[in-house]
Design a protein that fits this description.
The structure holds two protein chains of two kinds. By secondary structure, chain A is an alpha+beta fold. Chain A has helices spanning 17-31, 73-87, 108-125, 178-187, 204-214, 228-240, 255-264, 286-294, and strands at residues 45-49, 52-61, 67-68, 71-72, 93-103, 129-137, 145-155, 169-172, 218-222, 243-247, 278-281, 303-309, 316-319, 324-326. Chain A contains eight helices and 14 strands. In chain A, the strands form three sheets. Chain A has a seven-stranded mixed beta sheet. The longest helix of chain A is centred in the middle third of the chain and has 18 residues, at 108-125. The two termini of chain A are 32 Å apart. By secondary structure, chain B is α/β, with parallel strands linked by helices. Chain B folds into three domains: 16-72 and 178-250, 3-Layer(aba) Sandwich (Rossmann fold), CATH 3.40.50; 74-176 and 262-312, Rossmann fold (3-Layer(aba) Sandwich); 324-369, no CATH class. Chain B is 38% helix and 16% strand. Chain B has 17 helices and eleven strands. Chain B is globular and about 65 Å long. The two termini of chain B are 33 Å apart. The chains are: A alpha+beta, B alpha/beta. Chains A and B meet through β13 and β14 of A and α17 of B.
Chain lengths: 339, 379
C-alpha cells in the first residue's frame, strides 16, 4: 500500500494505488459510516428506494488542453457522469447537475463552444442538465476551468464492480488507449503519425443493449478511465477476489495507439479511456452480450479479452503469446520517454 | 539470411508460433545436458525488460536459468560517484544528467535531495541536450554522464565536437566487458554462457568477445531485443555449450558486425581510457570505469573543480541497507525475490537498493512484471 506522505501529490489523482490509499485513509475512514456506496468505492452510490435503487454519482473534470482531438472538457464532463451511472446499471439518467468554476479572463466565445458541446452530448445520451452553479476565480487561481457534474438515475439491479466470479469472461467494448494518447499528444505537442482521437462518448445506450442481452449474466462493470484498463481490472479482480488472465492477442488496440505507445514507452493498458466499458459476464452469456455490443455503433470492436480464475485472487496476468507475466498497475503520472 | 560468418538466421521479430518452436528447441537442448540447472547470463537491463515484458521466463524449460548480470549502468554507479555529483550540485554548479541518476542514493544524499535543497539539477535525454544547456548560460554546467559503451560514445562525440568553455563532464561511464570477466571469474555464479547486448555490440562488434569466450571456455552470443531475437540467441548459446564451441556468435546480424563501428570505437578511445574503479555492490572492476584522457583535462570536471565530498561523509549504513542484496543480485548469485526487502521495505517509490531505482534495474523490472512467478501454462 502506498504511503500517503505529508502533502497531496499528483500521483494521488492518477487513478492508481496512491489515489485509492488517499481516498480510503482520508475520506472513507473519516466520513463513515458510509451507508450505501462510499465504502464500496464503486462508480457511484446506490440508495434503495422501494424495489429499485437510486444511483447517484459526482465527478469533477480538469483536463489540459481543454479542447483535444475528439472532444473537449464539456463533452468529457457529461460522458464521465453518464458513464459512471451506466456502470452501476443505471442507463436512464433522470437529470444532471453542472457546476463550473471559471478563471477570470476566459473567453466567452470558448465558453459558449464548450456549452454547445455539452448540449450536443446530452442529446446523444438522452440526458438533461437540471440545475447548476457558476463561480469565477481570479486569474492564475485555477487553470482555465473546472467542471463538476452529478447525475441521478434509477436501476432495477445494481451491477457492482465486485461481482466477478471464476469462469466469468471479460469483455472490453472497443479499442483501448485512444483517449490517453490523444490527450498526451495534444498536451506535449507530439508530432505523431496518424490520427490519435479520443474515444470520449456516452455509454448508456451501449450498456443498455448489453444488459438487455445478458440480464443477470452481466456480473460486473467498470469504465477504464484514469489508470486505464490495467487499473480497472486490478480493482475488479481485488474486489471480486478472482485472478484475471488476459490474452494480449485479443486486446483491441488501434495501430496508431500501438505505434505511439512503442515510441513513448507507455503501455496502452495504462492510459485513460472515456468511451469504453469493461464488462464481466458469466461464460454462458458471453456470446449473447458480445453480439449485442457488436450491433451498437460504439461497440463494433468489442472483444472477449480474458477469463477469471480462482488462482491468484487480486492479480491480473497477461498472456503475451510468448509467456505470461503480471500486468502492473500504473502508479503516479505517466511521463512520455523523450529520446 | 545473412552471409556474416558466425551469424544465425534472421527472424521475424514477434511471432508466437516461431517462439513456441524455439522454446521447444531449448527444452530439447537442455535435456541433452543431463544436469540442471544450466545457467546463462545476460548483461543488459533492456534484455531483462524484454524477457519480463513478454513473460519469456514462464515459457523457458525449468532446467534453464536465464539471469541478469551487471547490466544496469545506473545500478553500478558507485556511492562515491554520486557524492561527487551531489557535492558539485551543492557547490552551485548546474548538473545535467540522465533521469534515473537523479533518485540514485549517494552516501547521504541523492541529486534529488540536493535539488530539494535548491541545487540546480536538470534531466537530459541526450548528451547533446546537456551541451545545449551549457550554451544557454554563462555559468558552469557539468554533464554527469552515465551508461555503458552506447552512451559513452555519445559523450565522446560531444567532447570531440568542442563544447562551450563552461561545459565539462563528470564521467560515471562503465565498460561492460571487464565486468563480464569479473563474473566469469566467480566460480559460485556458474555461468555457462553469456548473452551480450546487441546495441553495445553495434559499436564494439561481436569479435570483441572471441578472446573472452576462449579464455573462460564460455561462449558469448550477441542478441537483439525482440522476443524471438532473445530466444534464438539462447538456442545458439546452448548449442555452442553442447558442442564445446568456445567462441562468439552473432544472433543480431541485422545490426551487428564482427568488427563493429570503427569510427565510434576510435572516438570512444580517443576521449576515454579504461581505469580500475569501484562498481556499487560489486567491488573494484579492473578497467571497468571510463575516464577522460589527460588531453581532455579541460573538460574533465574532476580536474576542473575541487570536488569536496567530505560534507557527505558516509553515514553509518542503515539496518535496511545492510540487508539489501543488490550486490549479489547484480552478479547473478541470487534473484530479487530472494531479497528479504524486495516488495516490502524496498519499493520503486522508496528504494533501498540501486536495483530498485533504475528502469534498467533487475528489482524494479521484477517488481513491475512479476519476475518469475508461477503463472500457469499458456492459455
Amino acid at each position: 500500500m502506498s504511503k500517503l506522505g505529508d502533502t497531496v501529490a499528483q500521483k494521488h489523482g492518477a487513478g492508481g494505488p496512491a489515489m485509492r490509499a488517499l481516498i480510503e485513509s482520508v475520506f472513507v475512514a473519516g466520513l463513515g459510516p458510509a451507508g450505501a456506496g462510499l465504502a464500496a468505492m464503486d462508480d457511484g452510490a446506490a440508495i434503495p428506494v422501494g424495489d429499485r435503487f437510486l444511483v447517484l454519482t459526482t465527478d469533477s473534470y480538469v483536463i489540459k488542453p481543454l479542447v483535444f482531438p475528439g472532444g473537449d472538457i464539456g463533452r468529457l464532463a457529461i460522458c464521465g457522469t453518464i458513464n459512471d451511472l451506466a456502470m452501476m446499471g443505471a442507463t436512464e439518467p433522470l437529470g444532471l447537475t453542472c457546476a463550473v468554476i471559471i478563471e477570470a479572463g476566459f473567453a466567452i466565445a470558448e465558453l459558449e463552444r464548450i456549452r454547445d458541446s455539452m448540449r450536443a452530448t446530452c442529446a446523444e445520451a438522452g440526458a438533461t442538465i437540471v440545475t447548476g452553479d457558476t463561480k469565477v476565480m481570479g486569474k492564475g487561481e485555477l487553470d482555465g476551468m473546472v467542471i463538476n457534474t452529478a447525475g441521478v438515475a434509477f436501476a432495477k439491479r445494481v451491477v457492482p464492480d465486485s461481482g466477478l466470479r471464476p469462469g466469468d469472461r471479460i469483455i472490453v467494448t472497443g479499442s483501448v488507449g485512444d483517449h490517453g494518447f490523444a490527450v498526451m499528444a495534444a498536451r506535449h505537442k507530439l508530432q505523431l503519425q496518424g490520427a490519435l482521437v479520443s474515444d470520449v462518448a456516452p455509454l448508456n445506450g451501449l450498456v443498455r443493449a448489453a444488459l438487455a442481452a445478458g440480464g443477470e449474466g452481466v456480473s460486473a462493470m467498470k469504465d477504464p478511465t484514469r489508470g486505464g484498463l490495467a487499473s480497472a481490472l486490478h480493482e475488479m479482480a481485488a474486489k471480486g477476489q478472482v485472478g484475471i488472465v488476459l490474452d494480449e492477442a485479443c486486446l483491441p488496440v488501434r495501430s496508431e495507439v500501438r505505434a505511439a505507445s512503442e515510441l513513448l514507452g507507455i503501455d496502452p493498458l495504462h492510459v485513460a479511456n472515456e468511451g469504453k466499458a469493461v464488462i464481466g459476464v458469466r461464460a454462458d452469456a458471453a456470446d449473447r452480450v458480445l453480439q449485442a455490443l457488436h450491433g451498437h455503433p460504439l461497440g463494433r470492436d468489442a472483444a472477449i479479452i480474458g477469463t477469471c480464475v480462482a488462482e491468484r485472487p487480486g492479480s491480473v496476468i497477461l498472456d503475451t503469446g510468448f509467456g505470461r507475466r503480471l500486468l502492473a498497475e500504473p502508479d503516479g503520472e505517466l511521463l512520455p520517454r523523450i529520446c | 539470411m545473412n552471409a556474416e560468418p558466425g551469424g544465425v538466421a534472421e527472424l521475424k521479430f514477434r511471432d508466437p508460433g516461431r517462439a513456441r518452436e524455439l522454446t521447444a528447441a531449448l527444452a530439447r537442448l537442455v535435456q541433452e545436458f543431463h544436469r540442471a540447472p544450466v545457467t546463462l547470463m545476460h548483461v543488459c537491463g533492456t534484455h531483462e525488460q524484454a524477457i519480463a515484458r513478454f513473460g519469456l521466463r514462464t515459457s523457458l524449460p525449468p532446467a534453464l536459468r536465464v539471469i541478469m548480470g551487471p547490466g544496469c549502468p545506473v545500478c553500478v554507479t558507485d556511492l562515491g560517484e554520486v557524492d561527487e555529483g551531489v557535492a558539485l550540485a551543492l557547490q552551485g554548479v548546474h548538473i545535467a544528467t540522465y533521469g534515473d541518476m537523479v533518485k540514485l542514493p549517494g552516501s547521504s544524499k541523492s541529486l534529488a535531495d540536493a535539488q530539494a535543497e535548491g541545487a540546480r539539477v536538470a534531466v537530459v535525454y541526450s548528451a547533446t541536450q546537456a551541451v545545449e544547456l551549457a550554451r544557454a548560460t554563462t555559468e558552469p554546467v557539468v554533464f554527469f554522464a552515465s551508461g555503458f559503451e552506447t552512451t559513452a560514445v555519445a559523450t565522446a562525440a560531444i567532447v570531440l565536437a568542442g563544447p562551450p568553455a563552461n561545459f565539462s563532464v563528470l564521467s560515471a561511464h562503465k565498460y561492460v566487458p571487464p565486468a563480464m570477466e569479473a563474473v566469469a571469474c566467480l566460480p559460485e555464479a556458474r555461468v555457462e554462457g553469456f548473452l551480450a547486448a546487441g546495441h553495445a555490440a553495434v559499436i564494439t562488434g561481436y569479435g570483441l568477445f572471441e578472446d573472452f569466450a576462449r579464455r573462460h571456455r564460455t561462449p558469448v552470443v550477441v542478441a537483439g531485443f525482440e522476443p524471438l531475437d532473445i530466444l534464438a540467441a539462447l538456442v545458439k548459446l546452448l548449442e555452442m555449450i553442447r558442442d564445446c564451441e568456445y567462441g562468439a556468435a552473432n544472433a543480431y546480424p541485422r545490426c551487428v558486425t564482427r568488427e563493429g563501428n570503427r569510427r565510434a570505437q576510435e572516438s570512444l578511445w580517443r576521449v576515454f581510457e579504461a581505469v580500475d574503479g569501484p562498481w556499487r555492490g560489486i567491488g573494484v572492476i579492473p578497467n571497468g570505469n571510463l575516464q577522460l584522457r589527460k588531453e581532455w583535462a579541460g573538460l574533465d570536471a574532476r580536474r576542473r573543480f575541487r570536488i569536496d565530498v567530505s560534507g557527505l561523509a558516509r553515514a553509518a549504513r542503515s539496518e535496511l541497507s545492510r540487508r539489501c542484496l543488490c550486490g549479489k543480485i547484480m552478479v547473478g548469485l541470487v534473484e530479487p525475490t530472494d531479497c528479504p526487502l524486495f516488495g516490502r521495505e524496498c519499493l520503486p517509490e522508496s528504494p533501498v537498493g540501486a536495483c530498485m531505482v533504475s528502469s534498467e534495474g533487475t528489482c524494479k523490472i521484477w517488481y513491475q512484471y512479476g519476475g518469475r512467478p508461477d503463472l500457469g501454462g499458456r492459455a
